[in-house]
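Q: Can I see a sequence and its folded structure?
A: Here is a first one.
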Amino acid sequence: MSGLLAGLRRFLRQYPADFYWVGYSGGADSHVLLHLCAQLKRELGPIFGAVHVNHGLNPSASRWAEHCARVCAELDLPVKLIAVDARPPAGASPEEAARNARYRALAEWLEPNAILLLAHHQDDQAETVLLQLLRGAGPAGLAGMPQEASLGRGRLLRPLLEVPRAALLDYARRFGLAFIDDPSNFEETFDRNYLRHRILPLLKARWPACARTIARSARHCFAAQQLVEKALAKRLEAALDEAGSLDLTALASLDRPEQRWLVREWIKRQGFRPPAAMILERILEEAVPAKPDRQPRIEWAEGVVCRYRGRLYALRPTPPPAPNWRAFWDGKTPLVLPDASVLEPSLGVGVGIAARWWRQGEIEVRYRRGGERCRLPKRGNKSLKKLCQEQGIPAWVRARLPLIYLAGQLAAVANLWICEPFAAGPEEEGVILAWKQRSKQLLGLGKDKSVEQLGQGKGYVKIN
């Protein structure tokens, strides 16, 4: 038993942190980890706590949360209770929906420089690798759960990944730990539970050390994946721009296995889970060799990959805004648009929209409805379609361009163009507009990046 405590102590020395939170479900595994941390608190000080996520899927969920709070009080550890809506959408896996909701909530909550400790053990790793094998995964999937990973602004660690579950249960019995048995853990309709209760016992009967050897195979796959990533990482970096779009010329110069890895890793870096192999093949077969005038879209449940002017963009599959949407704006405070992007005003001199126009009357914001035109200084009256084509603005961004109307006339297009006669004179006070997105997957421009990064050609009026 002292071996578990010594092992955790050695592990944490490799990952010093301001604070360690234990992901505490109330089950046996996480209770053992929490108990070990409570013992280390005597040596290391008050740098441990627990976080419990209430999925609300079981009628006893509230009682489980109360149990977790009571155990933490007995151990003199702070506890954070987080409630999430883990109900799966139609056709989705309940396991996956609960896991996604849990990790999303933890990633949003975790403080900078803090570490979340999870109690996944050797048997969990064996189940994960077998599941990935049955799904046809490659080296990345067969590497199983990593011992260390980023999570929000902090880090996620699995200090018990080399420990068999039998050792954790022995510890729990020795110390008389009271833990929760979630009935869903015994429902064999779930793939993981079927492996746990039916398949792994058969494998262990024939090969008693199979969990350990499967975990060793996972480490080998992880090492192989690390070598691949090291070899191709520079090529991926060279193919990316600041907004995270992928250069197709660089991609086309690689052979198919390298392309497959590059696209998969690129999608991961854009904040998505890697799509199925079929989706990756569609990207390589449809988007990469497409003619320059084509704009293919490859969609899956979580995202969509679009091609535009020799680059690939990974976006969230959000529906286009309603063309008849409009809002009346005070012009003083930031305006949140339906897609969660934001228009922010600020003041300047000799730039932006003339303040005399801005303060004159009603400010209306709309989306494009077709046929809009803007008269630019020294360029004449131009259609928005033509201006967007000149600046290389993709179709999915054009649909979301906020149009600002003053006195019933088009005065500005997002932070891109100011139409005559609304531009501020050389010495005149002006209103500068910034149009920002809160999610880098919405428009494909990068978090808090403005549309001006899409192009700055001749005649471009920069007002942000």
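Q: Show me another, different protein.
A: A second, unrelated one:
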Amino acid sequence: MKLISFVVFNIVETLLRFFPFPSKTGLLKIGNPGPDSPVFLTCNYHLTVQRVKRALRGIDAYLLLANSRGVNVWCAASGGHLTNHDVISALKTSGTEELVNQRKVILPQLAGTGVEAQVIQKKTGWKVIWGPVYAKDIPFFLKNRLKKTPKMREVRFPWTQRLEMAAAWAFPISLLGGLIAILVSPGILIPLVCLVWGLSLSIFITFPLYSSWLNSERKRLGFSLISSGIVLLALVAFSLISANFSWRFLFRWGLLSFIVIFILSIDLKGSTPLLKSGFLQDRRLKVILDEGKCKGAGFCEQICPKNCFEVDEIQHRAKMPGAERCIRCSACIVQCPFDALLFESPKGERIGPEIIRKFKLNLFRKRL
């Protein structure tokens, strides 16, 4: 029964992924935790809660749900919906301190864009340990004495996640398009829904084949035009095979295909965890490491979702051998205790940590 409900929640909330789904905040007991059991904290996005609980099966632990307004961890932390205040409030009002002997709380790594470990420890006495990016890695993370491998720190975009994003886009587009079709031309309802789902699945499943094109404005436009051209050729072939060729048919479905592809391509980069959003105001900035300030604390290495950093433990200095992979999430800048990291524009203008920590991103990836 639990498995069925888990599957149902996953399907429904994946289809409605762009909408907040809040769970009740507070403390959950997983298994039979005691004074020495680990304490985890995550957002109150219902789908995340369900997946974390499933990952913790067979483990005795405490799970704190902080108020992220029903938004997932990365979006909530980057957008100012999962903040220091929310984490501090969860720790202080849940009664967790009375249940455990230690003062260590494990937060999801992707919360590092908006939750400052230093502030949490200073105001609550709880040390923040950054857990793995994906909940499924939690059991090994615990067995490995709360240490992450590079793979556990890195965001990926496997076919399962690409399917989820395809469904998350296809459902609202097909719903809106279907409602319009019912009012204008009911006969195209089923073909239109099939077209939307087919295009969405095709674009996201084949993402690895064209992902390198998305880093160029010109190539992105080329991707949309080529995709529309392929669909148009498919429509021509279909109409010829069915012996029902007509220019009206080609114009109608060619135009509808182009509209769907245009919608899906508006911020295709931002629909993936691997590329900088096209709306991101900071996309032309680069992260600068001030080696004079760096003391090799290693927070940047632990928090970076693209493994851009390495820390030389002998010289106590960080390096950025993977700088070209940076997606400007700003987590390293937020967490560095020595303010050794900042953004720099192509013109040499600099944006310091105090700005990044204070101003969060809105829905269009602009800092407010």
